[in-house]
Amino acid sequence: MAHTFDELVAKQRAADEAHARVQQLRDTYGPSTRTKWSGHQTATWETARRAWRDLARDVRVAVAEYARAEGRPLHEIETELRRAVDQD
Q1: pLDDT tens-digit readout, 11-21
Q2: Contacts for 73 with CB less than 8 Å, ≥ 6 apart
Q3: Could you give the CA distance from residue 35 to residue 48 in angstroms, rounded to a whole number?
């Protein structure tokens, strides 16, 4: 599947937001090794973590496809993507 650079930026931002949500939940609930989470808290955290993991995987695949299609090294695309995401 062909991706534009703007699509990569949107995908990375979504993954970053999902990661922030996982961190927020962990901070709110406390470390699972020290705090007994309720079943609801555990399910919420696990769902958020799976969403982040899936989005991050989608970004990695899309970036690799984009780099291949552009004939450029993966690390260059990753660097440009991080700069573009961090600008806003």
Answers
A1: 999 999 999 99
A2: 67
A3: 18
